[in-house]
Amino acid sequence: MEGRPAALAYSVAQAMAKTDSEIGVRGGLPMPRRKQTSRREQTPRREQTAGPFETEALGAELASRLEPGDVVLVRGELGAGKTTFVRGACRALGVTAIVTSPTFSIGQRYPAPVPVSHIDLFRVTDLDGEDPDLLADYLDSDSIAFVEWPPVAEDPVARLARIAARVRIDHAGGDRRIVEIA
Amino acid sequence: MRILGLDTATRATSVAMIEDGPPPRELEARDDPPPGARPRHAMRLLALAAEVLDEAAVGWPEVDLIAVGVGPGTFTGLRIGVATARALARARGIPLTGVSTLHSLALNASRDGQRRDDVEVIIAVLDARRGEAFAAAWRQDEIARTGSPGTPLMAPAVYTPRALAARVGGLHAASMAIGDGALAFREVLERQGTFIPEDHSELHRVTAINHCRLARGLRGGAPDEVLPVYLRVPDAEISRRAAAQ
Amino acid sequence: MAHRARGLDPEPFRVILGIETSCDDTCAAIVTAGGEVRANVISSQGVHDRYGGVVPEIASRHHLELIGAVIDDAFARAEITPEELDLVAVTQGPGLVGALLVGVATAKALAAAYELPLAPVDHLHGHVAATFLAPDPFEPPFLALIASGGHTLLAYVRDEGPAFEVLGQTLDDAAGEAFDKGARLLGLGYPGGAALERLAREGHPDTFSFPTASRVQGLDFSFAGLKTALLYRLRELSEQEVERQRADLAASYQRAIVEALFGKVRRALSETGLDRLALGGGVAANGALRERFQELGVELAVPARELCTDNAAMIASAARFRDPLPYPDYLELDVYATGERTLAAR
Fold first, then answer.
1. Nearest chain A CA: its distance from C76 CA (Å)
2. What is the ipTM of this complex?
């Protein structure tokens, strides 16, 4: 970044000071939360995979029981294989495009018989500060969505779609991973 | 005087023009996406503006003032509206003024044939998502005052349903609430004794015609001074500032 | 209107305004038909550093606040007036939707106000077109490697435009993303690329061995495994060891990224028979990478740093080689977020 012509000096503090006084009352009533459906809830399963192919296979297996409007939250630290898992699910859902990390663009939408959204919130520190439309563009009743790095508070996601599964992937040495699907 | 109005704060896209005449004229072109569909601000705004100009048979040089809705409303929508208005204004040297979308909405209630004598206060309420609402309230008598509508009884702010109910209850006046937010929080508001017109009433729709009316007589200013009124600081900024303290 | 009389003009698009807002830099540029950069204004928002990454909503807000002044600045530096414009070019995608929309709404309205044509440009085509700019335009055919925080692409560029053939791309993370995430694992700040490069200068690149994506078939790239390898290495080491060898880790990790890119480029050159290479994107600003690629012994074009990272001159440059949309055909133009249209974009 250094060496660029800094054409304009811009003060964030200045810009924020403007909005400070305009913030209204917050807090209060809890958000109306969509009721979780229990019809397809299954007992949590925990599996060890030997490599990316097996992690993809688990993703594909999960995909087979997803319906339009479902969202899957995928947790795990850097390099755990979240995108690998999602790639497997995408293939099973008929996505032919290359499934890459959407960290840069935040979200991607792949054409498929049921369109698939792939969201990565790695760079989004807190959903509340974002445009309410940020997720609305990707989560809807017509598509199946995967959210990497879901926020601690799941409310914004739950308001737009049905959380069908929570996946947790942990390193287990080398290419091995522990995949937990709940 | 010929004023072009633009609004992209709600799901709808509205473009309007008023001419003082003679004869005076009011035109509007708008896009209301069907329920469940995404807003089409990016695609429709400029096209609707071109349609309105065509309909009025005028070109950009004949526009004396642009009035753009600065919200509050959907962030992306507001930015499309303000960016478009600013670029048109700067390119053509047309003065630009920002209009509060809430104030414009409130003006619906004092239009001909809509005025209700049993109402003292108009509450404009827009859906702010996440279970919250943007709202502001004015005395009905003062809404139509061009430029400065008098001090609002409730300053534009984002409210939770509970906070909104508390504020509205505290007005102690016969009130009417309008806007998509009034529909979203109908129950909460009606419990406070607020009257809300039926769901399909035109009173709930933001129209850029009101932007033009409110801007009438205003001189407008430098395009870059007009910015959206978000009413929300990105929480990334809030948590950063909290951590810094 | 000055341009209305342009029907008689032999060279219709003499003066092009470029606008680029796909990520966190607000950019405007004035470029002539001959590829001369009359102005290239880049306003780096900078504010994202403290959040550890670009925050889309903040980026969009800043774009809107800055874009008017940035465009004014471009006109002032180029010493031309908006009335002298012949064409407006703008990045249509890929990038952050909210950020792109500020640029596209501005560009559409500016063009419409003057009834000028508008050229929507793909961001990656823009990076390639940076090499077509004066004073030393790099002439096709050549191989192009575009590597940045959001993209990693190997392309066969047969001519200036409007399209190119994609030979390879990343199957998971972008090269710049590997830099940023590696920097994060090493406890460096954001943006990580520059910080990692600085630290790497003090370390020995052969201290640690990291995978260079040789497992990936063909000319595609993969950086996800590298990221994981760094994570494992960090876990094996004690805190004191990490502290002592942080620079060595950075140097070794950087070398793995550079080697992964280098290996595929060398292979692509041999497979295509091309002997000319152009680099673009923010990663091309990396000193170690530039040094390594000198060793290929082919004719190498690396645009100046401010033309490698995101800028609007490259967008205006790309517009020189494609048919723009005449007024009013672009009024309903929308943006796109993802790269799949890069292939189809024309």
1. 12
2. 0.94
